[in-house]
What does this fold into?
Amino acid sequence: MPFPNILIPLACLALLVAGWQMGGWLGVAAAAGALVMWLLLHYTRLLTILKRAAERPIGFVPSAVMLNARLKPGVTLMHVVAMTRSLGALQSPKNEQPELFRWSDEGGSHVTCEFLQGKLVRWVLERPVGDGQPAEAGGAAPPAP
It folds into this structure.
């Protein structure tokens, strides 16, 4: 069991104990109310993210290149879904680790992300090559005549 999975319940218990020591049952009720509010805030955020993602096609992102630039190792799958506002297309067998998800754009570029225990481990951007020539970095002026 990872450390944060133990730390959160211990912090909740410590808050309840502190509430008891400060104000008896009234303090416990106040601490419990604060914990319920915290849980409701996270639940609302989760539902908002999933509602936005449900309104878009699975695995679609406006720009795979921009998604590639914004990704960082260690972010959660929910964070990536919030960034893309789309659920990723599952590429790996269901319920097996690591999980592979792909987001594609209209230009044919796609980002394949590998998640281990819900955290981003690595990702790969693949861009299409047109007319047998490599894609240019762009931005250079044409040569003078």
Remarks:
- The first helix runs from residue 3 to 54.
- Helices lie at 3-54, 64-70, 77-84.
- The mean pLDDT is 85.
- Residues 1-55 form one domain.
